[in-house]
């Protein structure tokens, strides 16, 4: 029986080499540049980004403990990677579900495990609300809080934040707004800390929340979504969105265009910190709640509620594809993904 794990490892290595060779052949070396500076290269190297995401998908599937035969099948596909195969594995994954949760209306690759990016924050919100928080309590933001994203991205890479400064005193309510309006990763991490749970315990609580919703292919490693180890499927993300968007405080916060936080300073002065919702194109669809996410490994993710429908798109390759797919799913009487 020891031969089987050794075969699995060899397939994994073969898969990675195949994807790497394919990417290098496409862009004459830009694959390495993509990993080092994806913010500048992501639009010009979309096929390479899909290749990276697909490889990571298989590696993380092993961590989730998916059936070995299923993982090996994915590895076989990667080992035989071609242009068509890469595009096939990179196609959008979507699902729509009535908000009563009883009827799955339609789906396409709805059970593929992919990074959730900032959609993770919906589960963070659910765990924070379990505390429950005193929204008026103030906390002081530290330099370590501001450095949180650098645990997962390269120095200089742009992440979704608001312009907090070390020494700012803000309320938990302010941080809640920053997390769900501007998708601040720093705010998510601070809110998790202020539950008085250790980082490990908060992660356990996130996974327990997923389990309480009956999810079996969803796993979390930290509260912001910056780690690609935060994983799930479109089908299971729909269940998370249904639970989160059923809460008025979550739903209403995601729709706010922006707020102005009055932050206290150590010298007794105050300053204004702007929290801006950058999802105007999503809000223009007339949704009742929305959460977006982006990582190079995840591409563009979106979960929305409109009326009695929940719609989720994972791994869309552009904002226009993401928004267009969501709009079609929400508006067509009997959508066929």
Written description of the protein model:
The chain has helices spanning 3-27, 30-36, 38-41, 46-63, 68-79, 83-89, 120-129, 143-146, 172-181, 185-193, 199-212, 234-245, 248-255, 280-283, 319-331, and strands spanning 93-98, 104-108, 114-115, 138-140, 169-171, 231-232, 258-264, 270-276, 289-295, 299-306, 309-316. It is an alpha+beta fold and 337 residues long. It has 15 helices and 11 strands. It has 2 domains: 3-90, no CATH class; 94-331, 3-Layer(aba) Sandwich (Beta-lactamase), CATH 3.40.710. 47% of the residues lie in helices and 17% in strands. A hairpin with a 2-residue loop joins strand 10 and strand 11 (309-316). Strands 2-1-11-10-9 form a 5-stranded antiparallel sheet, with helices on both faces. It has a two-stranded antiparallel sheet with strand order 3-6. A two-stranded antiparallel ribbon has the order 4-5. The longest helix has 25 residues, at 3-27.
SS-based class: alpha+beta
- Beta-strand percent range: 15-25%
User: In one word, what is the shape?
Assistant: globular
Output mean pLDDT: 77
Percentage of residues in helical conformation: 40-55%
What is the name of the CATH topology of the largest domain? Beta-lactamase
CATH class of the largest domain: Alpha Beta
Side-by-side strand order of the widest sheet: 2-1-11-10-9
CATH architecture of the largest domain: 3-Layer(aba) Sandwich
Structure summary, number of beta strands: 11
Low-confidence stretches: 1-6, 17-53, 78-93, 97-104
Question: Can I get a quick summary?
Answer:
With 337 residues, the protein is of the alpha+beta class.
């Amino acid at each position: 029986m020891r031969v089987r794990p050794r075969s699995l490892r060899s397939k994994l290595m073969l898969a990675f080499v195949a994807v790497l060779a394919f990417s290098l052949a496409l862009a004459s070396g830009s694959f390495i540049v993509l990993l080092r500076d994806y913010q500048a290269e992501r639009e010009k190297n979309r096929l390479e980004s899909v290749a990276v995401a697909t490889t990571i998908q298989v590696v993380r599937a092993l961590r989730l403990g998916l059936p070995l035969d299923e993982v090996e099948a994915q590895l076989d596909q990667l080992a035989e990677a071609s242009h068509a195969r890469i595009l096939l594995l990179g196609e959008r994954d979507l699902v729509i579900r009535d908000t009563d949760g009883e009827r799955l209306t339609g789906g396409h690759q709805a059970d593929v495990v992919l990074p959730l990016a900032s959609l993770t924050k919906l589960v963070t919100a659910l765990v924070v609300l379990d505390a429950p928080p005193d929204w008026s309590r103030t906390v002081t933001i530290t330099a370590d809080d501001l450095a949180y994203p650098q645990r997962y991205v390269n120095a200089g890479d742009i992440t979704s934040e608001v312009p907090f400064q070390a020494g700012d005193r803000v309320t938990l309510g302010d941080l809640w707004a920053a997390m769900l309006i501007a998708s601040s990763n720093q705010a998510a991490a601070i809110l998790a800390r202020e539950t008085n749970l250790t980082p490990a315990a908060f992660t356990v609580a996130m996974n327990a929340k997923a389990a309480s919703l009956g999810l079996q292919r969803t796993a979390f490693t930290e509260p912001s979504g910056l780690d690609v180890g935060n994983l799930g499927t479109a089908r299971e993300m729909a269940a998370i969105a249904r639970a989160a968007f059923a809460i008025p405080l979550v739903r209403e916060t995601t729709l706010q265009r922006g707020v102005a936080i009055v932050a206290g300073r150590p010298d007794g002065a105050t300053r204004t910190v702007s929290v801006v919702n950058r999802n105007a194109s999503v809000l223009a669809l007339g949704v009742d709640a929305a959460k977006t996410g982006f990582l190079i490994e995840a591409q563009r993710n979106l979960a929305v509620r409109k009326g009695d429908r929940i719609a989720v798109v994972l791994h869309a390759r552009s904002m226009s594809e993401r928004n267009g797919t969501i709009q079609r799913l929400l508006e067509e009487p009997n959508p066929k993904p």
